[in-house]
Design goal:
With about 220 residues, the protein is of the alpha/beta class. About 50% of the residues lie in helices and about 15% in strands. The protein has helices at about 15-25, 30-40, 45-55, 60-75, 90-100, 115-125, 165-180, 180-185, 200-220, and strands at about 1-5, 25-30, 80-85, 110-115, 125-130, 135, 190-195. β5 and β6 form a beta hairpin. The structure holds adenosine monophosphate.
Length: about 220
């Protein structure tokens, strides 16, 4: 199964992707996490992409294709949940082409959506654990002890790009670059939209019902 999760920054994609990947035993492929890892390793790719991440701009497609295509080949036997990839039409088309070479296709493309004021509020209160990657929110999902991860007690960190100015830039890019993918996935008949208001569990239930229906109809047709 190949599932895409896209939506504006702060909509809860990363959290839902972690929950869904563990529920359906899928590999979560987050292009943002892969890029941040390259930056923290100070690798050749990391040095190339650092400025884009800091400003909230999209990293050039050829760098993304290289990273993702390698992951697709290495993990062709796994079910994959794409988190934050593809981010524009060229990436969506390239993904379809790369999957076709492996005799695969996208099964469902979920777009999560939320009111813009809520998004900004969520992002300004977002923190993550630099060790395990768990995402917290001081408003909607606070850690038990202020400022530290519930699981490994690491000090929580704010992402460099979670500042008001960069958030606005990322939202603008979402509108112009990423949302046009909707009609592409509508044409492929795999597009589903999900309102991301509500608790993590409520949103997970909404998405899971769609995945379960899909799996049931697929097993009937086999
Ligand atoms: P995210 O963690 O998904 O919010 O991504 C953080 C940043 O990484 C974005 O603002 C972009 O600069 C970069 N990025 C992540 N995924 C992609 C992608 N598929 N294409 C281009 N840039 C990306």
């Amino acid at each position: 199964m190949r599932i895409i999760l896209f939506g504006p920054p702060g909509v809860g994609k990363g959290t839902q992707a972690q929950l869904l990947a563990s529920k359906y035993n899928m590999l979560r492929l987050s292009s943002g996490d892969l890029l941040r890892e390259e930056v923290s390793l100070n690798s050749q790719v990391g040095r190339k992409v650092e400025q884009y991440l800091r400003k909230g701009h999209l990293v050039p497609d050829d760098i993304i294709f290289e990273i993702v295509d390698n992951m697709l080949i290495e993990n062709q036997d796994n079910d994959i949940l794409f988190d934050g990839f593809p981010r524009n039409l060229a990436q969506a088309r390239n993904l379809e082409k790369s999957l076709a070479q492996l005799d695969q296709t996208v099964d469902i493309a979920f777009e999560m959506y939320l009111d813009e004021n809520e998004i900004i509020k969520r992002l300004m209160n977002r923190r993550y654990c630099p060790k395990c990657g768990r995402i917290y929110n001081y408003v909607t999902n606070p850690p038990t002890n202020d400022g530290v991860c519930d699981f490994d007690k690491q000090k929580l960190t704010k992402r460099d790009d979670d500042t008001e100015e960069v958030i606005k830039q990322r939202l603008k890019i979402y509108e112009t670059e990423t949302r046009p993918m909707i009609s592409y996935y509508e044409t492929l008949n795999v597009y589903r939209e999900v309102h991301a208001q509500g608790t993590q569990e409520e949103v997970l239930t909404t998405i899971s019902e769609i995945v379960d229906d899909y799996l049931t109809s697929k097993s009937r047709s086999n």
